Amino acid sequence: NSPRDREHLTQKPLDVMRELAKITPEGGTILDPFMGSGTTGVAAIVEGRRFVGVEMVPHYQQVAERRIREAQGEAVARGEQDALDFGGVA
User: Fold this and answer.
1) Which are the contacts of 41, defined by CB distance < 8 A and separation ≥ 6?
2) What are the counts of helices (DSSP H) followed by strands (DSSP E) for the chain?
3) More confident residue, 88 or 8
C-alpha cells in the first residue's frame, strides 16, 4: 500500500493477509501478538476465523478495533461523526 492508504507504517495488504488466514482451519483462531492497525484481524473475520490481537500503543488499539468492528459489519464512529446503528431496527 502507498503511505497515503495505510494507517500504520508496516501495514500489510489485506489481500495477502486473507490468503494467509486461509491456512488456519475454518472456525480456527488466529493470534497476532503485534496487531498494529489490525489487518490480520480484519482478514481473520472476513475469512471466517476468530481473532486474538495484542497491541501496546493505544492509538493503534483504537485503529485496529475500528477496522475489525467494520469488518464484522458493526457501525462505528469516525472523527466527529457519531455511529448510527440500525441493527436493532426491523
Assistant:
1) 30, 32, 35, 51, 53, 64, 67, 68, 71
2) 3, 2
3) 8
